[in-house]
Specification:
There is one protein chain. The chain has 419 residues and is mainly β. It has 2 domains: 309 residues, no CATH class; 104 residues, Jelly Rolls, CATH 2.60.120. The protein contains 5 helices and 34 strands. The longest helix has 14 residues.
Length: 419
């Protein structure tokens, strides 16, 4: 990185917008919102820019790093105020795309507080909108993990960044065959597909599909033709990839044809999160920039400035930061390299951070409430000419409820236990 680029994070920050909300704070003029009084303010070399309070425990912060120039937006949420993130898909099943603003709006209509959202994982265009990595929503695996890391919310409500793996097995009599993939094809192994993935699974020539009515039940059908296989609403489909060694293939076919029964057990390790989306690469780990960021991915990906979307963890896991950096707009915001993204995350106090899909997908929406309605406003400037892009999934800021006895003690105990 050039000396000019490395010094860009040290310049004074200017105001890029004054956004209407329930309260606005300019650094040094009034105290910070009461909910964050015991949290260190977000600073990039001494200035906090504009702070817009969305709701108690949820802030929208906007910055301008003039010598980038970089336009930066941050959704800053406090887990102690019962805020969390949920992974939302563009449609039922793995396929399908929607706008980030539509996904946030749809979730808010189901009840509960929604503060905003950002786009999440990279996705396929064929089938459209299938996430590149894992997507877990409400503990349900929509697409299973691959080699890339994830951002997750654990069953205990804590944020986590790491690599998920599948631990599964298909048992027939005394024989057991490992399942290495869940709602994701495994050309060299055995995969399990259930109805959360969708209504059918497409496979390549040479694969073997065994349809089962339940996780522990009889084989309904065996299919080897390269055509879509229906996934039953209960149970699922075992898919043996075309590059599986011949002895394993023979064992699998023997169990399916002669015994006609499998018991399937599936889980994610080392954790089975309640929410998860994929990303690439990890930018910050243990408060340090991850080595090798200049060479991650394609040559036009890591060292080139693009719009970026980041999710980060700060304040010992209490604070979750959703960050967008606009790009491809000379004179306004040119975007960041992966290394610059990591250094920005560190400057914001991140101890862990991961890069999500960027480019034209980079979008942040913030809730704007009135007595009659809540609308979701795109606060950054997406780089696509048509504006906000259809994406495969999103991370949405939402609030879990605290029990009535906990709410009564909020003045004395800021660390609520949330449902």
């Amino acid at each position: 990185m050039t000396s000019r680029a490395s010094g860009a994070l040290r310049v004074a920050l200017g105001i890029i917008a004054l956004i209407a909300g329930t309260a606005c704070v300019r650094a040094g003029r009034v105290p910070p919102p009461r909910w964050s009084a015991d949290l260190a303010p977000l600073r990039v070399e001494g200035d906090t820019g504009v702070v817009d309070t969305i709701a108690h425990g949820a802030l929208h912060r906007s910055f301008l790093v003039r010598q980038g120039p970089w336009a930066v937006h941050v959704l800053d949420v406090d887990r102690n105020a019962c805020w969390t993130l949920v992974a939302v898909k563009g449609a039922s099943g793995a396929a399908g795309r929607r706008k980030t603003s539509a996904l946030a709006s749809e979730l808010s209509q189901g009840g509960g507080a929604v503060g905003g959202a950002v786009n999440a994982d990279f996705f396929l265009f064929d089938p459209p909108g299938v996430p590149t990595g894992a997507h877990v929503s409400g503990g349900d695996v929509v697409t299973g993990p691959g080699a890339r890391p994830v951002f997750a919310i654990g069953s205990d409500g804590r944020p986590w960044i790491g690599v998920l793996n599948v631990s599964g097995v298909a048992v027939s009599a005394l024989d057991s065959i490992p399942i290495v993939s869940w709602n994701r094809l495994a050309p060299g192994g055995l995969a399990w597909f259930d109805a959360r993935f969708g209504s059918t699974v497409d496979t390549s020539s040479g694969s073997v599909r065994v349809t089962m009515s339940s996780l522990r039940g009889l084989v309904q059908s065996i299919d080897t033709a390269p055509a879509p296989t229906p996934i039953p609403s209960s149970g699922g489909v075992l898919v043996l990839g075309p590059r599986v060694p011949a002895p394993v293939r023979a064992r699998f076919l023997l169990a399916a044809r002669a015994r006609g029964r499998f018991d399937v057990e599936m889980r994610l390790v080392p954790v089975h999160p309640s929410e998860a989306v994929g990303g690439f690469p990890v930018l910050v780990h243990d408060s340090l920039e991850v080595p090798g960021l200049d060479s991650a991915g394609a040559v036009t990906f890591a060292p080139v400035r693009h719009p970026r979307t980041i999710v980060a963890v700060a304040s010992r896991g209490r604070r979750i930061l959703l960050v967008t950096i606009d790009g491809r707009q000379p004179g306004y915001s040119v975007g960041t390299t992966l290394r610059e993204s990591a250094r920005l995350a560190l400057a914001l106090g991140a101890t862990e951070a991961i890069n999500l899909d960027g480019g034209g997908s980079t979008t942040m929406v913030v809730a704007r409430s009135s007595p009659d309605t809540t609308r979701f406003e795109v606060v950054n400037r997406p780089s696509d000419a048509q504006g906000e892009r259809l994406v495969g999934n999103a991370l949405v800021v939402t609030q879990r409820s605290a029990s009535s006895d906990q709410r009564s003690t909020v003045g004395r105990n800021r660390s609520l236990q949330c449902r």
